[in-house]
Amino acid sequence: MCITESNIKKITAKQRREEILAHIRTHNKGDVNKLAQKYKVSTVTIRNDLNYLEKKGCVTRCYGGALLNDLFTFDQALNDKKKINSNIKARLGAYAASLINHGDTVILDSGSTTEQIAYHLQDKRQLTIMTNGINIAYQLASQPDIDVMVTGGTIRRKSYSLHGSNGEELLTGFRFNKLFIGVDGFDINTGITTPHQGEADINRKMVEAAQTIIALTDSSKFGRQSFCLIARPHQLNILITDSGIPPHYHTELIQMGVDVRIID
Q: Residue 41: which domain range?
């Protein structure tokens, strides 16, 4: 699209920063002078934009501009996530399902790994499962021994997940045996993070509503972080992952009291 002066006036700082980030994600780098020329703003304004993005963790500042931060976790469509490490996710999901007992009350967070749990519950009896994943609710709906609850809220089209104050309020009225939560990014100091604020808000309510918190992640998510915090590492009771977990992560999590289960 050709950017005219009339278009420029309509672009807010937030929109400009989103466009700059999209540019850097595409080209792996953003040049201050070129971006200033493109948006008809000063180089000082662009430097402030890049500084803002660096504080968020998206980019790393360099001479004359900024580089994409490869360790930052960006939002991805669910169908794209399903294609990444799919065999490992299937094994993690099958193991996680084995931890669910007859009569359990369970929260299944939305996501491609947690969805795998739904495929391995056919032999379970008298379960109550709440989820914010439309795809997960669909998979569970045909299983006669599972009562399915959906959090409600606004749907995220990319991830088929629900978020919003209605779902958060609903969660406060229940207490569940187990929460199985997916991971976009897992940093040993920060914890579990996600790119979406609404997702983080409802995930934190899930953590508050569960007696046992179980995180599932393939090892590609370690060392990555995003905008919004869900849980600190010490809040987890169990972590299910594969043998690619960095050794110092494994050691430090055990020291925090987290039960680390490695599945290959």
A: 5-68
* Percentage of the residues of the chain whose pLDDT score is greater than 90: 66
Q: What is the pLDDT of residues 52-95, one digit of tens each?
A: 888 877 788 888 888 877 666 555 555 554 555 578 999 999 99
Chain segment 135-181, per-residue pLDDT in tens: 999 999 999 999 999 999 999 887 789 999 999 999 999 999 999 99
Give yes or no: residues 51 and 156 share one domain. Answer: no
Domain annotation covers residue 73: no
Task: Quote the pLDDT of residue 53.
Answer: 86
- Give the number of other CB atoms < 10 A from CB of residue 5: 7
- Do 157 and 232 sit in the same domain of this protein? yes
Number of structural domains found in the chain: 2
CATH number of domain containing 227: 3.40.50.1360
111 and 235 fall within a common domain: yes
